[in-house]
Design goal:
Blueprint lengths: L3 E7 L12 H14 L5 E6 L14 H11 L10 E13 L2 E4 L9 H4 L1 E2 H9 L5 E9 L12 H10 L2 E4 L9 E2 L4 E2 H10 L8 H19 L7 E3 L17 H16 L3 H14 L5 H15 L40 E2 L3 E2 L2 E2 L2 E2 L13 H20 L23 E6 L8 E9 L2 E9 L4 E6 L5 E6 L15 E5 L4 E9 L5 E11 L44
Parallel strand pairs: 1-2, 1-3, 3-6, 6-7, 15-17
Antiparallel strand pairs: 3-4, 4-5, 7-10, 8-9, 11-14, 12-13, 16-22, 17-21, 18-20, 18-22, 19-21
């Protein structure tokens, strides 16, 4: 039975930083999900008012968090097939090119001495011994500084080196938003949806796809801004790991099996063992391929034999001996010899041995051939017998009827090429069809450099898709035999969506959805030229001409006579 443990931390109240509203609730909801739905046995929970455990405080101070990271991870206590998750909701700060988590008593003016370096957290988590370690950080950028970069860059580099699956709520240049209407952080809301009944994201890959769609949608709806989560899972087979076995589909398990087989071929026995154990856990211990895979690995570790092929005795026909194991032929009766002393030239391999007499008997002449030569000779004899019987049937008989020549069987898959008709209105296409055994269907379409391709298939089917570039190679490492793909086209040309069946499936119905989104070109806003205001010329005011005052002529007065 696999172990499933976790640490969940949520901090609202900070001594020296702006308080948050829903970080504590996010951690509580994560704790409840892990315990009630994901089947985790032990969850160490730290929040503002979390109760003491065994007389020890669980308040998320630096001292308490460092104590559990030191004491719990001093020695490995897990093994292949086990899971350990670390969830943090609170403030994060980047300082001196290093990423830090801020405990409730973290001081932004003394980060090195009061915060916790994320690379220290990752290093301690790796010590637990589990092959599946998940680091989930819902940490917003430091509120005190509106410029600069948030956490993520250094942690992503560490995750690639250490193989820790790391999930970030936003890229370093953005904020991680809380939504009052939901009373949650947008990231944790989408995370719990994806892992739960709504998203049923059983694998790392499907959870990544869900978060990239859902988080921006929530933030756009409630905040009218942008938040872009991202996930680091390297090497690429980490993205196929099953996080929630109860929602795992046959496609998920088949993909994990393919990774396990490939690890065996590459002689990465530890990795192959881990993957087969995870297949077994996802199939509730009922998968015989996984059982046989683990048995093969055990045999390989105990001997140098090639798995699943019994060791064979090889007879020496000459100085050159072929050591290639072969299928065991029908048993050849060994002639009874009159004297043991006549037995020579005996070579053993494995547990059995053959003996050839030094002097051939007159009754039985058995050359000193290799077993491969014997099988080839027997094969030629059977082929000759078949031709003796079959060839006469091909000639025209007296009745004039001809026995038709049987059509040779061809194990090569039948490839069907079709054109993908994208609707002119929205550049999308939906196709419902059936894929049969030994059949490959290719849908071709024209794409231009910069276009965003989204293709996904119903995960309940047994069909996988591969997105091929114009050179007929996968577009990138995430585009091969998956149920969903999203990426930017790097060149202009003819692209192909190739559909294949999951190994072992006879046939399957499928529902393929493809969308090609043109890059949004920012239209420059034309700065209007200033319209010059015409300075009015002064209108001269016309000075009124003075009206001459008429001097009255004196009226002569008549002199009285």
């Amino acid at each position: 039975m696999a172990k499933n443990w976790a640490i969940a931390i949520g901090i609202n109240q900070y001594d020296y930083l702006q308080p948050l509203n829903y970080a504590k609730r996010d951690a509580q909801l994560m704790q409840e999900f892990l315990g009630n739905e994901a089947g985790f046995e032990r969850i160490f929970f730290f929040s503002d008012d979390s109760p003491n455990v065994a007389g020890k405080s669980t308040r998320p101070t630096r001292t308490n968090l460092l104590r559990i990271l030191r004491q719990l991870f001093d020695n490995p206590f897990m093994e292949a097939g086990d899971n350990f998750w670390f969830f943090f909701s609170g403030h994060g700060i980047r300082y001196a090119d290093r990423d830090y988590l801020m405990p409730c008593d973290g001081d932004p003016e003394d980060i090195e001495n009061t915060a916790i370096a994320i690379n220290f957290v990752s290093e301690r988590l790796r010590r637990c011994g589990a092959d599946n370690v998940v680091l989930i950080l819902d940490a917003c950028r430091n509120e005190g500084k509106k410029t600069g970069e948030g956490i993520g860059r250094q942690t992503a580099q560490e995750a690639r080196q250490q193989g820790v699956i790391s999930i970030f709520s936003c890229i370093p240049q953005e904020y991680s938003y809380e939504i009052d209407a939901l009373q949650q952080g947008a990231f944790t809301r989408a995370l719990l949806e994806g892992l739960g009944i709504q998203g049923k994201c059983a694998t790392v890959e499907r959870l990544d796809q869900y978060l990239k769609f859902r988080v921006p949608e929530l933030v756009r709806q409630y905040k009218n801004t942008r938040q872009t989560p991202y996930l680091i899972a390297e090497p690429v087979n980490k993205s196929h790991l099953i996080l929630v076995p109860r929602y795992a589909t046959l496609v998920d398990i088949a993909t994990l099996k393919n990774d396990a087989y490939q690890a065996e071929v590459n002689r990465s026995l530890d990795l192959a063992e881990q993957l087969w154990i995870r297949v077994l856990a996802a199939a509730s211990g009922q998968d015989m391929d996984a059982v046989r895979g683990l048995q093969r690995i055990e045999r390989l570790r105990n001997s140098s034999a090639i798995p699943d092929l019994p060791q064979q005795t090889i007879l020496q026909a000459s100085k050159s001996v072929t050591n290639t194991p072969i299928s065991k032929p029908s048993q050849i009766p060994t002639p009874k010899l009159t004297s043991p002393s006549s037995i020579t030239n005996t070579q053993t391999s494995g547990a059995g041995q053959f003996a050839t007499p030094s002097t051939p008997s007159k009754k039985l002449i058995l050359s000193n051939w290799s077993r491969r030569r014997l099988i080839q000779t027997a094969g030629f004899a059977v082929a000759g017998l078949f031709l003796t019987i079959a060839v006469p049937r091909l000639w025209r008989s007296d009745s004039g009827t001809t026995t038709p020549t049987p059509t040779p069987t061809n194990n090569q898959p039948v490839v069907s090429s079709k054109r993908l008709d994208l609707k002119a209105s929205n550049n999308t296409a939906t196709i419902k069809d059936t894929l049969k055994t030994d059949q490959i269907i290719k849908y071709a379409f024209f794409g231009q450099k910069g276009d965003k391709l989204t293709a996904f298939i119903d995960p309940r089917s047994s069909v996988l898709l591969t997105a091929l570039s114009p050179n007929q190679q996968p577009i990138d490492i995430n585009a091969q035999k998956v149920t969903a793909y999203q990426g930017i086209l790097l060149v202009t040309g003819r692209y192909t969506i190739e559909l294949t069946l999951v190994p072992g499936a006879a046939k399957s119905n499928y529902n393929l959805n493809v969308a090609l989104e043109k890059p949004v070109k920012s239209t420059p806003t034309e700065t209007p030229l200033p319209i010059p205001t015409e300075t009015p010329f002064p209108i001269p005011t016309e000075a009124p001409l003075p009206l001459p005052t008429e001097t009255p002529l004196p009226i002569p007065t008549a002199t009285p006579r």
